[in-house]
Structure of Acyl-CoA dehydrogenase family protein:
Amino acid sequence: MSTFTPVDWQTRPAPQSAGEWIARAAEVATVLATDAAARDHAGATPYAEVQLLKESGLVTLLGPVAHGGAGEDWTTAYRVVREVSKADGSIAQLLGYHYLWNWAARLVGTREQWEHVEAEAARNRWFFGGAVNPRDADVIVTEDGDDLVFTGRKTFSTGSRISDVTVLEGVFEGTDQHVFAIVRSDSDGLTFHDDWDNIGQRLTESGGVTLDGVRTPWSSAAGYVDKKFQPRIYNTLNVPTIQLVFVNFYLGIAAGALQTAATYTREKTRPWLHGGHERAVDEPYVIDIYGDLTAKLWAVEALADAVAAEGQRLHEDPDAVTEQTRGEFEVRVAAVKARATDVALEVSHRIFEATGARSTSHAEGLDRFWRNVRTHTLHDPVFYKRREVGRWVLDGELPEPTWYS
């Protein structure tokens, strides 16, 4: 477990603008960067890292100002995730998923429910996890008086083991009707397994979870009124919203890879003995690599910011979201997801062409950028993202809302 040098955030005025919050995220990234490679190698549960996110105020970025939140919007949240991921992709993923799960009450719940959840989350600086992996056989939900009972298992539950509250998802027994509810992460019957052992995103605590009769009041069933779900098209915005989280931590990881590699090239890379240059930074091929990769990254960052702004307009008027506006937004998200995936993978492996053989040392940890991108970009096949865009271009076909589109 890491310990960080204390930062005086508690004695300083809270950021008052989007730019100041992004600068705060950059400060957090600076702290995380001090031992990022060592923490990645250790793979320890990130208790100290989550505490850092709380102390910095980043966990309440989207929360209501009246209850201690920053009242910022999704365009700022995405940029914050991107900044943090320059230093540590795992912690950025945890933060981005936290934002989505915190917002899930607003996406799915009634006004009374989401106002209550957001107020409590901001006041108590809750950190959210989620046990909502759609690829597993669904958790079964039954009724017991005024309670709902969740029973089953999920293979992945990102962040739950170090969270204060967890979003549960299951299906009512004998139906195809889904239900979401937020419970305390220390609830009876909720067991998180220490079985996340993947090559990348190693600190995300994305292991499995068992739900053995986890109870929660009927009133916590998001979006249900008198035991009947109240559907809105806005409910389906969860997928493009979280996919933009993915986009931004991919881009942040790529930017961090470039920054770290450039520092290594300036300070350690030796020029090729037959190249005729005294410094590696004067090698034409090295200059070309950094110029090429930076130009590609900047282009996708600009697209990501534009798409985030389009999504924010939908979030600002949920009741006005239509199948058409939702579908067109998903197409745009699919396009930037595809480009971010390709560019982040290219950046994170091509940096080695500019840093040289010695940069592959285990101690340098440059491989973590590629491992992190490669691991998470397998979340869903990029082929299907390009397909969404292609079908829309050729036939005007809008993506059907699913767990992945």
Q: What stands out?
A: Residues 130-229 form a domain with the Butyryl-CoA Dehydrogenase, subunit A; domain 2 fold (CATH 2.40.110.10). The mean pLDDT is 94. The CA atoms of residues 341 and 377 lie 6 Å apart. The chain has eleven helices and nine strands.
